[in-house]
Amino acid sequence: MNSRQFRTKKKFGQHFLNNKTIATEIVRIINFQDFDQVIEIGPGTGFLTKFIIKECQPILIEIDEEAVQFLKKNFPKINNIIHGDFLKINIKPFLKSRNLIIGNFPYNISTQILFKILEIKHSINIVVGMFQKEVAERICSKPNSKKYGIISVLIQAYYNCEIIMNIEKENFTPPPKVESSVIKLERNNVKKLNCDENQFVHLVKTSFNQRRKKIKNNLKIFEIKSNSKLTKLMEKRPEQLSVSDFILLTNNISKQ
Q1: CATH value of 10-187 in 3.40.50.150, 3.30.70.100, 1.10.10.10, 3.40.50.300
Q2: Global pTM?
Q3: How far apart are CA 85 and CA 253, in angstroms?
Q4: What is the SS3 assignment for 252?
Q5: Is residue 211 a contact partner of residue 138, using CB atoms and an 8 Å limit?
Q6: Per CATH, the architecture of 197-255 is what?
């Protein structure tokens, strides 16, 4: 079976890149020598893998059993091809000192992939991934934007975010109904937020429950200390607050 005969499956959200120039550009933005471990999520038929293996020996994680068999047959030199769901696999045993995650992520679980990466953020130095364009813009959006939201704040608390390129539909098989973007997330210098991190996540999610309302209305379940700076923040809408603003609010919760 060759890649043209491979049957994509809707349940896995498979849209395989088919443009060699784009695959080359994605790989070119990475200095693979900086990493001890490279993990590709959702390699499918290995279109991007062909370019990655010129630089390193990656670990491949693929949920589709047919794709796994295809990869084993066509990439016999790759020692570690894992058949499984990245969202359910414990990848900690595979991680080394400096780790890169790369992939043409299935769009139906792309944000879930990022939330799992946040759980192991101290081990993942860089993420380079293909996302639905709208999702990529939300991840990388800055305050005072309509696209700025929960995923923006939680990712940007730990990663510097950049949209590398936008990609048209015809560069995939089968073509998706949406435009796509490649983004790069690079771990910042924050070892730990200057607040209770679980409380921070809860507060951020609660703040955006009704994004058009002021923070003071969304955070009624919290008892927040009062001072002039906090009072000004409470009059803003959630998309107007920076990561540091949410940290400040978290540190001033006296009671929930």
Answers
A1: 3.40.50.150
A2: 0.91
A3: 38
A4: coil
A5: no
A6: Orthogonal Bundle (1.10)
